[in-house]
Amino acid sequence: MLEVEIPWTWVLIRATGVAAWLALTGVVAWGLAVRAVKAAGKPFSRALSLHRWLGTIALLLVVVHMALLLVDTYEPFTIVEILVPMAATWKPFAVALGTVAFWLMVPAWLLGRMRKRWGDRWFLRVHALAYAAWPLATAHYVLAGTDALALWSLALLVAGAAVFVVLLLAQTPRERVTADR
Ligand code: HEM
Prior knowledge:
Elements: H1 8-39, H2 45-71, H3 79-83, H4 92-113, H5 115-118, H6 120-130, H7 133-144, H8 151-169
The structure holds protoporphyrin IX containing FE (HEM).
């Protein structure tokens, strides 16, 4: 019988990728839901802390996902290939989408931590941009993922996209929401 050895790093890269995407979907969906509720005039500061926590978990999972690529021997990546969009030799475009999503998440997370000290001005701009991380990460998932087209994965993608679209439609565009600190 033919035995194929599957590297543990590869399994973990895929597992952390899917977990990171789920956490990112959660943080974006929860953020949009909180924003819609805030626009309706309801208090939401506790809900906002869940949004913050999910953001930290999503970013941590992405960092582990990226770090594992450095130790994977099947398709080794360098630190430059991981951090610079289009520097990768393996599926450069698909990987770049993930890298750009990562670079949108980092400043939103950092400025969120510094918000009390630095104020809202930069935070709100950078934070609005971070929402673009979701479509980019989703495109990265579809184009780079080995299992992206498996039935379970398609079900996740369709459910995530449906939640994202419904919550976007639930927003009141003209209302500027300045979140509680
Ligand atoms: C928000 C950021 C990111 C998210 C949510 C994410 C998520 C994912 C997901 C869901 C997969 C598919 C797993 C599978 O089913 O096979 C994947 C695969 C992959 N990701 Fe990411 N990723 C992100 C950032 C990055 C970055 C920055 C890099 C490297 C520069 C990267 C490199 C890869 C590679 C090489 C694969 C292919 C693994 C395979 O062989 O299946 N990702 N990612």
